[in-house]
Design a protein that fits this description.
The protein is α+β, with helices and mostly antiparallel strands. It is 35% helix and 29% strand. It contains 3 helices and 7 strands, in the order αββββαβββα. β6 and β7 form a beta hairpin. α1 runs parallel beside α3 and α2 crosses α3.
């Protein structure tokens, strides 16, 4: 391999590692309960997870393309609603009958949004007992950090410790 090509590949790998480190830093800053995961690392080299009684448990993976997957369970539904509507606005998610509706006051069920621009998929499950689960995949890191930051803010409004 020519020296110029080998040098260019090295430069790319260095830049990529910086990108992954920056992505990790952004996600950790946005949602303080997260920490680097022990084994298993789920699907990605970078996995962050948390478990707290008041705000459930979950993990965020940052894949080889610097896109995030968020999988959280047992969150307060009101905090999720506030965070999602602060991040997206209202009327972005389709309800159980396939019709877009505001999440505020929504009943139990599965609410989805497929972002055609970024190819990200979002699913929220509101459970019967006022709790919610998030399953978001292929999210650009800036979008994931925004969602996680608004969730942190919403949890603080609910007097739920999130750090």
């Amino acid at each position: 391999m020519q020296a110029a090509v080998a040098s260019a590949i090295d430069d790319f790998e260095l830049a990529w590692k910086k990108c992954q480190n920056a992505a990790t830093h952004a996600i950790l800053a946005a949602f303080p309960p997260l920490d680097h995961a022990k084994t298993p690392t789920y699907c990605c080299d970078i996995t962050l997870n948390y478990r707290q009684e008041e705000i459930g448990e979950g993990h965020v993976c940052i894949d080889a393309f610097c896109r995030a997957t968020i999988a959280f369970e047992d969150l307060p539904q009101d905090a999720v609603t506030e965070a999602i509507e602060a991040s997206f606005g209202i009327m972005w998610f389709d309800g159980p009958d396939g019709v877009s509706l505001p999440l505020s006051g929504a009943g139990p069920g599965v609410y989805t949004y497929d972002d055609e621009t970024t190819c990200a998929d979002y699913e929220i499950v509101f459970e019967d007992h006022g709790r919610a689960a998030l399953s978001f995949s292929d999210i650009p890191v800036p979008d994931a950090a925004t969602i996680l930051h608004t969730l942190t803010t919403a949890l603080s409004r609910e007097d739920v410790r999130s750090d």
